[in-house]
Amino acid sequence: MSAENTRNFCIIAHVDHGKTTLSDRLLEHTNQVSARVLTDQHLDSMDLEKERGITIKSHPVTMTYPAKDGKVYKLNLMDTPGHVDFSYEVSRSLAACEGAVLLIDAAQGVEAQTVANAHLAVGQRLKIIPVINKIDLPSANLELCLKQLEDILTIPAEEAILASGKAGIGIEEILEAVVHRVPPPRWTDYPQARALVFDSLYDAYRGVIAYVRVFSGTLKSGDMMLLMSNGLRSEIKEVGIFTPKMEKVDALGAGDTGYIVSNVKDTSEIKTGDTITLSRHPATQMLPGYKEVRPMVFCGLYPVDTSDYEKLKAALGRLRLNDAAFVYSSESSVALGFGFRCGFLGLLHMEIIQERIRREHDVDIISTYPSVVYRVVKHGGEVIEVDNPINLPDPGTITEIQEPTIKAAIHIPNDAMGDILALVMEKRGVVDHTDTLDATRVMLTCILPLNEILVDFNDRLKSITHGYGSMDYELGEYRTADLVKMEILINGDPVDAFASIVHRDKAEGKGRELCEKLAEIIPPQMFKVAIQAAIGGKVIARDNVKEMRKDVTAKCYGGDISRKRKLLDKQKEGKKKMKQFGRVSIPSDAFIKVLKTN
Ligand code: GTP
Fold first, then answer.
1. Residues 6+ away with beta carbon under 8 Å from 234
2. ipTM for the assembly
3. pTM of the entire predicted model
4. What is the per-residue pLDDT across 75-126, written as a single tens digit (0 to 9) for each?
5. May I ask the CATH architecture of the domain 194-278?
6. Residue 412 and residue 249: Cα distance in Å, rounded?
7. Which H or E run contains 535?
8. Does 133 belong to an annotated binding site?
9. Domain 485-597 is found in CATH 3.10.350.10
10. 119 is in an annotated binding site
11. Which of 21, 77, 101 most suits a substitution to test ligand 1, by most atoms within 8 Å of the C-beta?
């Protein structure tokens, strides 16, 4: 099929506005694959996605659509993740398309990521097809959505398609709009072959599988490809398309979306956003949009059971193969032994990786307090980056500490304004400006320290606004702040895993909160345990863990030994999930609980 009859498009939306449901419908309509097979074979590949109801990885798929104009079109669709942590993946998918279906939940209206994603799409010069989705909902407010479309996104309301992925309304109309409104593939005339890598996957047997959008030229097995960012050459072993399962084809031509299997065995060598060209006639100019992703949030991950160290190492290695945005290196902690320092795009990314280690690799892990990357200026002008509080140099040698900030766009109902302003202030943020979105909603543009939004900002925003608030952010600049290292001492010994870098003004309150929380979470011990928070050796808060003796077999009268053994085994099992700190046992999930509630 010629490039003239090919359309590459994606679906973008705020999280939960129905992208996955709608993509399934489009596939069904084009008889690509039944929804059931799709669920079983394709989306099921990541249990977590289903459980959390969010898309983590983008799934491309090629459909054949006989349009009303009598011509048959090849439609390449990318489903994109909506969560802010994965906006890098969204922009990669966008770069591989000429058009974007922008979904708006009819009951929710335009949200922060609707705006952010629409801006990304406009920035990439994509044709936007606005779709008001979920119109089957009784709470749908079409009038408001259409008005928001014009007022907030400056898209004419008459361009909107009314649809429901669930009820199957508007599906054909969307496909027709894709055919007629989205332009055919661009840059096909470029003299050499160029393909954009928008994702990659590691397969144990075939090595790295690069997901590509071919812009010009033809790629086929036997060709020697060249990766433009690092000059790596490798023979192409196989090319194919997604139906959505991988299906081998003879060649990928201009305008096609598909995959390439080569000799490359390490995902870090094929980076998302790179351009693949052919070694014999290499292109001289890369396709636009290549950006190195940098992890923003770091934490230490340690096996609860030290004998699981190798297993954890293998698990991280495997996860890294499929996720170039995730990095790790070995580190050790006095309290936790040998483990790894890991870097993530954001907190959700961190939670997902941790969850996958536990579930898919069956390793029980402890994570330390997450940290952003600080810049420390030392006397004499040397600047070092610190992503682990325990590596903070002696305060006497430091001129200043700078922390990363974000520029956040926060959409909220008018009546939540007061509470949200208080929250922003509590988090050391400043409101740059406010914009009225419509009669009931405003958008605050704020500058906040990244560190302050790591743990609970989004949850608090949702709870204050009863779920109607949303946020999107981009990284801002580094700013100087009065930051100090706070340590937690258990029975006088600092537990390095709980060390954190905090703002001096907040240290005391935070220290008190942490001590109280730990005292609550750590089960009563055989002896009294003191928990203290300290800055530079000066204690700023303290609490105690209760003392108690518990004989689990006390309730067993007589000599039923098997019953007794069972209870003791059960107790032992419980103990296994504890981490020993000197003589104090701390449940392995204490760290996470402390984090969550802090
Ligand atoms: P992310 O991938 O996490 O961004 O979510 P998504 O945008 O792919 O949303 P998804 O398709 O998973 O749908 C989110 C929720 O909305 C699910 O509970 C769906 O059942 C529901 N939903 C999706 N489309 C419709 C619709 O047209 N009508 C109604 N009533 N519910 C829908």
1. 224, 225, 227, 262, 263, 264
2. 0.96
3. 0.71
4. 999 867 655 566 666 777 788 999 999 999 999 998 888 887 888 888 888 9
5. Beta Barrel (2.40)
6. 49
7. strand 529-535
8. yes
9. no
10. no
11. 21
